[in-house]
Amino acid sequence: MITKKFIVQCSKQVKELAKRVLLVSKPTYFNTELRSSDFMDSYPDAKLSSLIEWSNQTSGCKFIYAVSKSGGIDEEDLFKLYKEAKKREKDSNGKRAFARANKENRKSRILYVGSSNSLETRIRQHLGHKDDTLFSMQLKHWLKEDSIDLLKFEVWKFEKITPQDALQVIEDSLWEKLQPMLGKKGGK
After folding, report:
1. What is the dihedral angle through the alpha carbons of 105, 110, 111, 117, rounded to the nearest 10 degrees?
2. What is the pLDDT of residue 131?
3. 7: left (phi over 0), alpha (psi -120 to 50) or beta
4. Closest CA to 151 of 177, 171, 129, 123
5. Which residues contact 98 (CB under 8 A, 6 or more apart)?
6. How many angstroms separate the first and last alpha carbons of the chain?
7. In what side-by-side order are the strands of the sheet with 150-158?
8. What does the pLDDT look like over 118-166, one tens digit per residue?
9. Considering its fold, how many domains does the chain have in total?
10. Is residue 3 a part of any domain in this protein?
11. Is the pLDDT of residue 13 over 80?
């Protein structure tokens, strides 16, 4: 089944994908920061209103985002805190879906790299205020208020005509560059 002819066909597909990636328009950029106290008790509508407004300016856009931390406890201690919460959830047969913990990136200040067609929904999931069965950081369910000083969201907005496979290459490349502590590389 995997013949030289098949491998040549694979090579042609990758070349076509590379052409689609090169045609992607430069995305627009937005960033915002939260303190853990901003989202531990309730979703921070007011603090995120500018980001959400910006994300909704044009319908159908696609987003790539990176979430990082500054200050607070050491990254390795933060990683341990996350792993302990994830284990407690599993041991109690809970349904909360915690993102993958990347042991090799446990010293990274970048917590997560991902993409979404619905930015507000995805942020709600990561903060722990929606859909506990979708893999996400679930921050309010394990983070302590003194664990971080600031949580920074960096978001790139792509035109709705951006091909999904080209967007996936860009996201995967950002993941490789930033090496986040949590989450996985690659699409669903």
Report:
1. -120
2. 80
3. alpha
4. 123
5. 82, 85, 86, 89, 135, 136, 137, 138, 142
6. 26
7. 28-34, 150-158, 62-70, 110-116
8. 999 999 999 999 888 889 999 999 999 899 999 999 999 999 999 999 9
9. 1
10. no
11. yes
pLDDT in tens, 55-89: 999 999 999 999 999 999 999 999 999 999 999 99
**Residue 151 in contact with residue 33, Cβ under 8 Å?**
yes
In a domain, 16, yes or no: no
Q: Please give the model's pTM, rounded to 2 decimal places.
A: 0.94
Classify residue 1: in a domain, yes or no.
no
Range of the domain at 67: 25-178
pLDDT at 104: 96
**Would you tell me how many other CB atoms lie within 10 Å of the CB of residue 106?**
17
